[in-house]
Structures are given as C-alpha cells and as structure tokens.
Specification:
This protein has about 425 residues and is an alpha+beta fold. It is built from 14 helices and 10 strands. It has a 6-stranded mixed β-barrel with strand order 2-3-8-5-7-6. Helix 1 crosses helix 2.
Length: about 425
C-alpha cells in the first residue's frame, strides 16, 4: 500500500470517527460547531456586504468619469469641531457664488462645470404620498457630467435650467412607488405642495453611500431653490476637464481662478475644498476598513469559542478511546499516525461548522441584497478564507489533544479502564 493510499485511508477514518463523535456527543459537538459557524457567518456576511458596497461605489465613480473632481464649500472632515479657528476654520468658508461658477466655465481647460444641491421633499401624486424623497437640483450640465440614461422622456434643457422651470426627471424607483404601472410622462406630482411636471425617467446608479436605489427626483437647481426652499449656500460643483487635459492641470486652473476671485493671498488657506475621487475612495476605505476590522475581530471571538470547544470534545474523545489508542500502538501505529488521525477529526468538526456558517452567510447575503440598497455578493476569496480559517482553527486547537493521544504509552493505555 502506497503512502498516499495510507494517508487517504487515515483521512477517511478520521472523518468517519469525527462524524460518529458528533452523533454520540450532540450537545458538545453542537456547541463547537455553533462557535465556528458564527465566526464564519460573520466573515462571509460582512465580506459580501463590503464587496457589494465596493462595486457600487466604483460604479458610481465611473459614471462621472475618471478625471471629474468636485469643488465644495467644506472639506471631508471627521475631526472634532468646537467652533474655533484652530479646529474648524473651514466652517467660515463662503458659499460658492454664481459668478464663480461662470468664471470656471470660461476656463479653457474645463469642459463642463455642473452645480448640485441635495435636498428632500414630500412627494405626492393623487392619493399616493412619499413623506421624504431625495430631491437633487442640477444645472444643465447634469447630462454632460453624469450621463444618465433617460428613458422614457427626456432631461430638462439648458433653457429650462436657466429659467428654473418646474419640471422633474424621476428615478424608476419613484415611478414604481408613486405611479405603479401607469405612464408617468406628462403627469404632475407635487414636491412640498408645489406642482412639477414629470418629463423623464432614469435609472439611478448611485452607490450605497449616496443613498442607493431610493425614490429620487432631479429638478433644475434654480427651481429647487426658488420653489422648494433649498439653500443656495449648499451648492457643490462637479468639474469635468477636457479630454486632453490632465486632471491635476485642471485642478490647478480651478484653484487659481477661485483663489483669485476671492482675493486669497499666497499664505492664505483656500476657502473651499477640492475633492478628487481618490480622496473620496481613501475616506471610504478608512471608514469601511475600520468597520471590517471590527467585524473580523468579532468573528475571531466566535472561532476562539469554537476552538475551545474543539479542545474539550477532543480531550474527552482521547480519554474515551485510550484503550483503542493502546491497541493501535501495540499493532504498530506510530505517533505521527495517531497525531494525524486526531487532527483530521478536529479539522472535520470545524469544517462542518465552517460549511454551515458559509451556507448561512450566503443566505444572509441574499437577504442583504434583496432588502437593502447593498448589492451584496460573496467574493470567491471570502469562501476560501472562511473554510481555511475553520480548518486552521481545528488544527491549531486540536493539536493539544492530538499530541496527548500520540504520547500515550501503549502499555498504560491497554491497562486503562
């Protein structure tokens, strides 16, 4: 018999004995499997959620183009702010003015400058009401920068944007919630009691971070300020450089133009923020990276609990099978053979827990995908990591009882009652 065949026989025997141990000690084995399953479930579910959010954010960034950047009144900041110049001088940044937007549009290296305000309003159509839906105000450059797929209907024109016409382009989600199966084009809905005509429908590709697939309406930015009460001081800009202009060159041009219009001296800090997609991604990674680490730590607790259970159940198994171990050693079984058998048993126990945790994690990912804005999906690496972690846990925590079994003296073992 070859070494491979011998090893395969030992593996199959170890798996069989482990399954028999589960049947004979249902409570102890169940607690061990539960600890491993919980740890693996957390890893798989969190990995699926983070993977879905990553894909959603990447798709959101891709929709605006890789070189598009943003100009905001305030920077992305999570620092403590007590109102002093030392901690949050940016609170006194002036709002972005219309004359500044017009000046940026005249720059030779800039293709488009889009204005945007995020707001919310109560939406009503006949007897259907949404208490709070997202309302986004855009300038006419919306279609140039974000390139939405508007169908059926159309986006608002430059003239409608300039005059603040009461027209709206709504998401497919709002169509489903408000109009059901009827055609929304040409119908009038009210936003905070103000009538707006629906002229188009678009599929919202916003990421989880920007609200996900929720009911939204896009209206001309001046209509949002004039009729719905949005504050013009909340205006932010999306700047798209020309195709042959590097992003950093465009950023330098925009920075110089705004600082010049605001009379900033060379030593002064800029009273606005330039936010690139790289900066947004770094901020996103720092937030969700910490969240992911915390979840991994919690899953590690589950694996440790399962590992302690492995030690307990395998120690009991060694004690109960002392005479069997003595007989096997008397018949020529080596320490390595005994050690290998018990490690296989331990890895089988944790492997069962890992498989259960993986299955429950897959169900969790389906629930997240169907009932939240997160398009959760399990990356293949998470499957490998989950099953690998459960097997490694079994081997590490099974080493102590396996070593004890391998060191038993065959004579003393045969005498054991």
């Amino acid at each position: 018999m070859s070494a491979f065949t011998t090893r395969l026989s030992a593996v199959s025997e170890g798996v069989r004995i482990a399954i028999d141990a589960v049947r004979a000690n249902k409570v102890r084995a169940g607690l061990t499997i539960l600890g491993i399953a919980v740890g693996v479930f957390v890893v798989v579910a969190i990995s699926a959620a983070v993977h879905g959010i990553n894909q959603s954010v990447a798709k959101d960034f891709a929709s605006t183009g890789p070189t598009t950047f943003f100009v905001s009144r305030y920077p992305i900041s999570f620092e403590a702010c007590d109102g002093s110049d030392n901690t949050c001088a940016w609170l006194r940044n002036p709002p972005i003015r219309r004359n500044e937007v017009d000046a940026l549009r005249r720059l030779s290296n800039i293709e488009a400058v889009g204005e945007r305000i995020d707001w919310s309003a109560k939406v009503r159509y006949r007897n259907v009401e949404l208490p709070s839906a997202g309302i986004e105000g855009y300038s006419a450059e919306w279609t140039t920068i974000s390139a939405p797929e508007v169908y059926p209907g159309r986006a608002f024109t430059a003239a409608e944007a300039r005059t603040g016409a009461r027209v709206a382009v709504i998401t497919t989600t709002m169509v489903e919630r408000v109009f059901g199966d009827s055609d929304p084009i040409g119908k009038t809905l009210t936003l905070n009691g103000v009538p707006f005509e629906v002229i188009g429908v678009y599929k919202d590709n916003s990421s989880f971070l920007s609200g996900g697939d929720r009911p939204k309406a896009v209206v001309p930015i001046d209509a949002l300020v004039r009729y719905i009460g949005a504050r013009a001081s909340n205006t932010g800009l999306a700047v798209k450089p020309r195709a042959d202009v590097p992003r950093d060159v465009a950023i330098d041009d925009v920075t110089a133009a705004l600082r010049g219009l605001r009379g900033s001296r060379p030593a002064d800090e800029s009273s606005f923020a330039i936010i690139t997609q790289d900066k947004l991604m770094d901020t996103y990674n720092s937030i969700f990276g910490m969240f992911f680490l915390v979840m991994i730590a919690l899953s590690g607790v589950g694996l440790i609990v399962g590992g302690v259970g492995v030690v307990a159940i395998m120690m009991i198994s060694v004690t109960e099978r002392t005479r069997e171990i003595g007989v096997r050693k008397a018949l020529g079984a080596t320490k390595a053979t005994i050690l290998w058998q018990f490690l296989v048993e331990a890895a089988t126990l944790t492997g069962i827990g890992g498989a259960i945790g993986l299955f429950v994690g897959w169900l969790g990912a389906l629930l997240i995908r169907n009932f939240t804005p997160i398009e959760a999906s399990i990356p293949p690496l998470a499957v490998v990591a989950a099953l690998g972690a459960s097997a490694v846990t079994g081997i590490l925590f099974g080493m102590l009882p396996a070593s004890r079994a391998a060191r038993l003296d065959p004579v003393e073992a045969l005498r054991y009652e």
